[in-house]
Amino acid sequence: MARMATLTAPMRTDQRILDAASRSFGTRGFDSTSLDDLGHQLGLAKQTILYWFPSKQALLDAAVARGAAELSEALDRSLERAALAEDRVEVVLRAAFRFAVRRPELLGLVREVSRLGEGRAADLRTRLGPLVDRAQAALAREMRAGTVRRADPAHVLLFTYSMVIGVATDIEAQRALGIDVSIASLAKLRRELLAFLRAALSPIGAPAPPSVAFDR
Amino acid sequence: MARMATLTAPMRTDQRILDAASRSFGTRGFDSTSLDDLGHQLGLAKQTILYWFPSKQALLDAAVARGAAELSEALDRSLERAALAEDRVEVVLRAAFRFAVRRPELLGLVREVSRLGEGRAADLRTRLGPLVDRAQAALAREMRAGTVRRADPAHVLLFTYSMVIGVATDIEAQRALGIDVSIASLAKLRRELLAFLRAALSPIGAPAPPSVAFDR
DNA sequence: GGGAGTGTCTACCAAATGGTAGACAGGGTT
DNA sequence: AACCCTGTCTACCATTTGGTAGACACTCCC
């Protein structure tokens, strides 16, 4: 049976629903996603979706919760790993980029939630709060240590987040700029983003030492 | 007189509709905007909207066309002005930032169109094509002249665009990062963004000369 | 005064949407 | 066998949505 996107082996129905919902909410948006479509996509009746999740809102909440957990976990792990690494900023950035490329819909979901008004956003905020704090603290530490140019960590994170979001989700902008959207050019894009950030973050007058990990 | 957009004195109905539509499409999204809401917002019946614009799609197209024209004009002007200025990149950037702050909904609209699939995006692409070309050429020129770090101009533009979009439209992300959203902090945000970009773009080993225009 | 045209409105409609009610099938458990 | 529990489905409903048809002013022109 089923060999569409949902061809994963025997998977719990609620998880399959969550997958499809995250994808659709994250790419098309919440309002543009109808339960009927979702159901059809999964070979399920809409009512089966409503059996697992009592309402569309609840489905969104569940998708956000799971997405936030995934993202939090991935970045948390990389923050830990970074503590030991040579070039900490780069380690985290590579992790973020990898995540953005592998699960762009989750970043799209974050972006979508931002638009759905205070209520939903507040929930997401508390979910990602600890992660944000850790990242901010780590960045501030680097600044104090002199490995990163001094600036407001929150702002630096905002800029970085925005760029990653843009690279991961705004493929139309990339087309408009004449960037060809393919795996090959994606690697180049990542290299450029890392170089860009390296330049933006290296302390003034001291261009970052050519780190070994900085592939070219 | 009038200090809100909608209660401007005698303004052509179609322009008022276009204003409200741009705002709503750009912030809530296309599908989340109903013609009834729009009409109610304007004190008009939905059918009046459909008198001026034959369909919701046509309304979106018109909003995009006007928005693209505004954006194109603003940035084109700044590109011209920049040709004479000392620090060209900064001039353009300030213009972009000013635009992003004054009419964030138009940037949101661009972002929204990106999501509405190939069709609409292609239209926008041709509309903004010339602007993109000019910007890209100008940037490449700076790189050849050695005033900007060498990199793929398209990528640099993508990163910059993403950051501006993020700063202008993703206020929830800013909240999540603990950035207080106010006019005062907005000025600080702009300063930081300029500093960040200056660092990212200055040629290696030669930190940009402290330009006069770079306020602190 | 009488059209002609323009702009806005009041019905109305068909389709889609989120959600409810309840039937039905299958598998344990006793 | 009787029963319950779980998961899925078929109907159905109320509301919303984009869009149509046509009436009602109001103005300009003759």
Describe this structure in words.
The structure is a homodimer of 216-residue chains. By secondary structure, the first copy, chain A, is mainly α. In chain A, 72% of the residues lie in helices and 0% in strands. Chain A has helices at residues 13-27, 35-42, 46-52, 56-84, 88-102, 104-115, 118-145, 153-169, 171-176, 183-201. In chain A, α1 (13-27) crosses α6 (104-115). The interface between A and B is large, with 57 and 57 residues. Chain A binds a DNA duplex (30 and 30 nucleotides) through α3.
> Quick one: overall form of chain A?
globular
Order of helices and strands of chain A: HHHHHHHHHH
Note the gap between the termini of chain A: 45 Å
Which protein chains make the most extensive interface, counting residues with beta carbons within 8 Å of the other chain's beta carbons? Answer: A-B, 57 and 57 residues
Oligomeric description of these chains: homodimer
How many DSSP helices of chain A? 10
Indicate the mean pLDDT of chain A.
87
Number of strands of chain A: 0
Percent strand of chain A: under 5%
- Give me the secondary-structure category of chain A: mainly alpha
Helix content of chain A: over 70%
Stretches of chain A where pLDDT is under 50 for at least 5 consecutive residues are 1-9, 208-216
Features:
homodimer, 216 residues, mainly alpha, globular, disordered C terminus, DNA-binding
Describe the protein's topology.
The structure is a homodimer of 216-residue chains.
Chain A: H1 13-27, H2 35-42, H3 46-52, H4 56-84, H5 88-102, H6 104-115, H7 118-145, H8 153-169, H9 171-176, H10 183-201
Helix pairs in contact in A: 1-2, 1-4, 1-6, 2-3, 4-5, 4-6, 4-7, 5-6, 5-8, 6-7
Chain A binds a DNA duplex (30 and 30 nucleotides) through residues 13, 34-36, 44-48, 50-52, 54-56.
